[in-house]
Structure formats: structure tokens, C-alpha cells
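Please check this one:

***
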Amino acid sequence: MTWVLKKFNELTVDDLYAILYLRSEVFVVEQNCVYHDPDGKDQRAWHLMGLEDGKLVAYARIFEAGVTYPEPSIGRVVTAPSKRRSGLGRKLMETSIEHCEKLFGKTSISLGAQMYLKKFYESLGFIVSGKEYIEDGIPHVTMTRKCTA
């Protein structure tokens, strides 16, 4: 597995296509959720790509404080369906957290979790920090991982 972190303007056309394809494959098709994935925030994000044999199989966006939440945040966390139950989702989140700390220092990190993944995020040190809400027809909750320093 190769991990690559790029700002939006560093992405190649092929990078962007692979990112949008994977996000659409999971968030739109698999979850049967019609929503506008390009949300105007990609240009402000760091894009973490997990590549296996040159193919994108894991992805997350990382934001500085103030873009989505008051603290740095992680979003659009996704793994290829063919890689589920392999531990890749955990490795993606651990790598995302590491990059947040490298970019922004030891600080709290927030995310909007789909409710069915709440226990997964809790296992990574995130705690519920907001009320449950519906986003694009799917129950979510805001979770925060407090600074460990």
C-alpha cells in the first residue's frame, strides 16, 4: 500500500477521476444516495489516497480548522468494496489522523460519522460531540477525537 497526500491543485486529472469514481461508487451507487458529491470543499482539502498496484482503494479528505468544523477534520472516508473487512478502513483512519497531526500539530480532530460506523470511530478515540442528524437521507453524528498531547 502506498499513501499519497496532495493538495487539490497537485492532483492530476487521473487522480481526480479515481477519487470521484470511488466516492460515487460507494456513496451514491452502493448506498443508493442521490446527492451532489462535489460540494465546493475539495479545493480546500488535503486528499489522502491509498494506492495498491497504482489503483485507488482508500481515500479521505483532510481539512484545516474552520473549513468544516472549528478544529481540523477528516471526511469522505471511503474504501473500495473489494477491500472491505481487510483492516484497510482502520489503516486509512490511522493514516489520516497521523497526517492531521503532521499538518496541524497535536489537536482535536472532528468528523461527521454515519451512525452505523459510530463504534468503529469510537475504537479510534472519537467520541460523540453533537446530536444525531440526517445528511442526504442517512443518519450521522458529529464525533471528535480530543488532543492526545
